[in-house]
Amino acid sequence: MKKWLLAASLIISAGFLAACGGSDESSKGESGKEKVVIGYFPNIDHVPAMVAREKGYYEKALGENVEVEYKTFPDGGTFMTALKSGDIDAGLVGPAPVMNNFSNGADVKVLAGASSGGTVVVASEKSGIDSLEDIEGKTFITPGIGCTHDVQFETYLMDLGMDKLASARIGGSLKHVTGNPAQYQGMFESGQVDLAAVPEPWASTLIEAGAKEIISTDEIAYGQTLPNTVLAANGKLVKENKEVAEALVKAQQEAVDFINNNKEEAQTIAIQAIKDLTKQELDKNLVAKSMDRINYTTEINEEVLKQFAQSSFELEFLKEEPELAGLVDTSFLN
């Protein structure tokens, strides 16, 4: 798509754009302006995108000649498909889908962190699970196969050194299914699944409804050190339109600063945004508890990402040992 090439010129000068000879109509929004599309999920670790959307940070950073469109996703796999195809230009996603796709040749970049922490493993009341000793042969659910929460949970189990406490995919006894976290409560109630490795606010929502916390955010693999959500962009955008990439990172930083300085308002924004997307209105106290589990920051530890990718390889989500050189580009962070 040609929109990346043109958006920087629009930001600098509309007149210069006209001299360049126009653009592909598919890259324009309804207003006729060039369009940048941002993706994110209805999870508490994606609140920076919700705040940036509500406060107009992306629009302000990109300039009045660029139209911003938003798309939401249930999991990292669908997000990455959209990012690679150019249906979205950038957005928030867990690091595992980005690294897995990069390792398989996708031209994608990580530009900044967004949040860390927040992954919890919970068991349904019907499961009969009171501790890890009870999970053999049970069914667990994550948003996607090889997603960030899946890798964290399976790495934790792998570190225990007990072969049966692993996914059946790699010879263990646990059946693994996937689904949208907003639907986990119904799946718990129906007995379809026993365990969930889940992000906030769905972990706190399930616990509030009677689920038992089995592995806490602090205990799970890479719990507080891993960037649980990152700002990812199409590599072509970063190479051909650095001004747009810089603007996206600037908006991300503004959103993170707002969350950390205005916690109650950020919680209100998150509640409304999630209600708009899922039709579920979350309790304010529950959201406050969820957000307290998470550290919102644009900082990113590349060494931890490498260790996490190695875990993905050892769990056989990656066919080859990962080489992540060139994935992270923090040059746009101040």
TrEMBL record:
Protein's name in the database: Aliphatic sulfonate ABC transporter substrate-binding protein
Major site of localization recorded for this protein: membrane
Taxonomy, superkingdom: Bacteria
Cellular localization per UniProt: Cell inner membrane; Periplasm
GO annotations of cellular component type: periplasmic space; plasma membrane
CDD domains per UniProt: PBP2_NrtA_CpmA_like
Membrane-spanning intervals of the chain: none
Family indicated by similarity: Belongs to the bacterial solute-binding protein SsuA/TauA family.
Lineage, uppermost ranks: Bacteria, Bacillati, Bacillota, Bacilli, Bacillales
InterPro entries cross-referenced by the UniProt entry: ABC_SsuA_sub-bd, NrtA/CpmA_ABC-bd_dom
Species whose genome carries this gene: Niallia endozanthoxylica
Keywords for this protein: Cell inner membrane, Cell membrane, Membrane, Signal, Transport
Keyword Oxidoreductase: no
GO MF: ATPase-coupled transmembrane transporter activity
Signal sequence extent: 1-18
Keyword Mitochondrion in annotation: no
NCBIfam families xref list: SsuA_fam (TIGR01728)
PROSITE patterns per UniProt: PROKAR_LIPOPROTEIN
